[in-house]
Design goal:
The protein is an alpha/beta fold and 234 residues long. It has 8 helices and 7 strands, in the order αβββαβαβαααββαα. The strands form 2 sheets. Strands 3-2-1-4-5 form a 5-stranded mixed beta sheet. A two-stranded antiparallel sheet has the order 6-7. β6 and β7 form a beta hairpin. α2 packs across α3 and α6 packs antiparallel against α8. The longest helix is centred in the middle third of the chain and has 33 residues. 20% of the residues are buried.
Length: 234
């Protein structure tokens, strides 16, 4: 039994760390105000530095990485702080590896005195990080526009619901007489119209009855109605 324990101890002692598959790798810990960057210890007297988030600071970060002979950089794909730095590094010819923060935390063996940027640099240098998929720049531009369009449509729908709520609070049942309460509409031969902010309703028969509401608290309701209508019409 003693011999077996001795052999196991020897095997543990003879384990070697994984080889460096990316010797020219750097790691960046992103932040809202400051970024911490780590390069291999033999590339600079101060292998861990911090840079601000202004454009000139990010340019200086890229220049320092070039001086250190770095070719590939690893950073966590969290938040929007990575976007300006990613664009600058990619434009300067660096291979940027965006990694999932959960994958980085699940890798065992980290020491307590190692900074996040140093841990990223080490994992990237030994090839233990998998880059997340990022489409080309032109596809990213189209995707950004589509996401913005979807957000604007969602916001417009919210304002339309608020308009409907204000009308319901005043018992103006315009939606029963008009097919579209946000523009020029006609239903059952009756013309309904919004005139910018004047909220001048013109109607006959059912439409006229539909706008005969209760205006006891019309001041507050109309204020909300006009504000939402102005935003929705833009």
């Amino acid at each position: 039994m003693a011999n077996q324990k001795t052999e196991r101890t020897r095997k543990k002692k003879t384990r070697h760390p994984p080889g460096r598959t990316n010797p020219d790798a750097a790691g960046i810990d992103l932040g809202a105000i400051v970024h911490y960057v780590a390069v291999p210890a033999d590339r600079d007297e101060k292998p861990v530095r911090h840079f601000g988030t202004l454009t000139e600071d990010l340019t200086g970060l890229a220049d320092w990485l070039k001086q250190c002979g770095i070719t590939t950089v690893a950073m966590e794909a969290t938040g929007v702080y990575r976007i300006p730095l990613f664009q600058i590094l990619e434009d300067r010819g660096f291979e940027v590896c965006l990694v999932n923060a959960r994958h980085v935390k699940n890798v065992p063996g980290r020491k307590s005195d190692v900074q996040d940027c140093q841990w990223l640099q080490y994992l990237h240098s030994v090839g233990l990080l998998n880059a997340s998929f990022r489409p080309p720049a032109d596809i990213c531009a189209v995707r950004s526009l589509l996401r913005h369009r979807e957000s604007m449509m969602r916001t417009a729908c919210q304002h339309l619901l608020r308009i409907q709520k204000s009308l319901d609070q005043m018992n103006v049942q315009l939606h029963h007489a008009a097919t579209d309460i946000t523009g020029y509409t006609k239903k059952d031969g009756s013309a309904l119209q919004y005139k910018d902010q004047d909220v001048a309703f013109q109607g006959k028969s059912k439409a006229g009855a539909g706008i005969d509401g209760i205006y006891i608290l019309a001041g507050s309701y109309l204020t909300s109605f006009l504000q939402d209508l102005k935003i929705e019409s833009k």
